[in-house]
Amino acid sequence: MTAEWTGKSTGVVIAGLTGSALGAGPVIFYTLPLLMRPITTEFHWGLADFSIVQGISSITVAVTSPFLGYLTDRWGARAIMLPGILAFGIVNFLLSLLNGSLTELYIFWFFIGLSAAFVGPVAYSKLISAWFFRHRGLALGISLGVGGGIGGALMPLVIGPIIFAHGWRAAYWTLSGAIIVISLPVAYFLLYEPEGWRSREKAALPTDAMGMTAAEARKTRNFWLLTIAQFIGAITLLGVLAHSVNLLTVRGFTPQIGIAVLSAAGLTSIVGRIVSGYFLDRIDSPRVSLIFFLAPLIATLLLQYGSTPPVIILGGIVLGIGLGAEGEIVSYFISRYFGLRALAEIYSYTYGIFVIGAGVGPFVFGASYDANHSYTPILTICQIGMAISVILMASLGRYTFPAVRDTETAGHAPATSQVAQPAALE
C-alpha cells in the first residue's frame, strides 16, 4: 500500500496552507481590527457603519457557498479556486480606492464576500479529505489550521507597520499583491485531486467516498448541533477579534498591545490546530473538541478584566487556541458524521452559517459600543453564548463514519463492515 503522504498529497496540503494564510480569514478578520480606526477616522464613519461590511460579505458568502459546494463536488476544487483567488486579489485592490462613500464601501465588500466564497475552506476540505483517511485530522490541521495561523500571526505584524508608515491604502495594495503573486501560482501548480477519486465517488463503492447526501445530513440532530454551535461561536469569537484593538485602546492600552494580542492569537492558533488535529486522529470522540470551544470564553474574561499587558497578551494566546481549532474541528466532524459523498455541499451550509455569524458579530459589537460607550454589556452576552456552544458540542452523538486505525492510505478504503452505515441518523 502507498503511504498517504505522497508528493502530490503533500503539495495539496502546501497549497491549502498557502491559500489559508492569504485567504478570507487572515485577510479580513486579522486586518479589519487594524484598519477600522484609520478608515472611520478619515471618513468620519461610526464603528457600526464600518463594522457592517463583515455582515455584507458574510451574507454573500453564506448565500453563495452552498452553490459553490455543489459545483466543487461535481467539477472539482481547481475549477473553483483559481478564478476565485484572482478575483479576491483584485477586489482587495479596489478597496484602496475608497473615496468616502458608504455605498461604494458596501458594494466593494459585497464583491469581497463573493470572491471569498471561492477561496474559503470548503474546497480545500473536500480535497484534503479525499487525499487522506488515517491522517485526515492532522492534514486538515496543517493545511487549513497552520496556514490560517501563519496568516493570522503575520497580518498584524506586516499590515500594522504599513498602516502607521504609509496609510491604510498601502495596506490594501500589499494584500492584493500577496494574494495574486503568491497564493495564485501555488494553487495553480499544486492543487490537484487524487486519481480515481471521482470515478470511485460516481460508482458509489463502499469506500471512504461513501456518505450521506446533503438532504440526509440536514435531517440529523448532529448537523444542527454543529451548525448552531458554530454560529454562536462565530458571532462571539469574531466579534471579540474584530474589536480587540479598539477594546484594549478604550481600556487604556496602546495600539501596540492590540497588535501584540492579534499576533499572539495568530501564533497560538497554529498550536491549537496541530494539537486538535493530532487528537482528532487518535480519539474517536467529539468530546476532544470541548477544550477548544472553552478557550475563547476564558480569553474574553482575560481581555475584559486583565489589568496588565502580560495578562492581556495571555488572553490573546488563549483566544488563538480557540481560533485555531474551531473551524477545522467542524470540517473534520462533518467528514466523520456524514462521509465524503457530499462533503463540500454539507460543509458549505455550516460554513455559510459560520460566516453569517462572523459578519453579525462585529456589527453587533460596534452597535453596542456606539449605544453604550462600553463593551461590557456585549461581552457579558458573548460569554453566555460561548458557554452555550460548549454545551451543544458536548451533546454530539457518536461518529457515523469513524476512522479505521489500521487503514494506512487514502484510496484504500475499509470494508463496508468496518464503517458505520448512514442509517444511524439519530
What do these coordinates show?
The protein is globular and about 55 Å long. The model is unreliable at 200-208 and 405-426 (pLDDT under 50). The chain has a single domain, classed as MFS general substrate transporter like domains (Growth Hormone, Chain: A). Helix 12 (221-242) packs antiparallel against helix 16 (309-338). 77% of the residues lie in helices and 0% in strands. It is built from 18 helices and no strands. The protein is mostly helical and 426 residues long. The chain has helices at residues 7-21, 24-29, 32-43, 47-75, 77-95, 102-119, 121-131, 136-166, 168-190, 197-203, 214-218, 221-242, 244-250, 255-280, 290-305, 309-338, 343-372, 376-394.
Give a brief rundown of this model.
The chain is mostly helical. It is built from 18 helices and no strands.
Q: Beta-strand level of the residues, as a percent range?
A: under 5%
Written as H for each helix and E for each strand, in order along the chain, the element string is HHHHHHHHHHHHHHHHHH
Largest sheet: none
Structural class call reads mainly alpha
**Annotated CATH homologous superfamily:** MFS general substrate transporter like domains
Cα separation of the termini: 35 Å
Oligomer type: single chain
Radius of gyration, in Å, reads 20 Å
What would you say the CATH architecture is? Up-down Bundle
Low-confidence stretches: 200-208, 405-426
Shape: globular
CATH class: Mainly Alpha
Helical residues, percent? over 70%
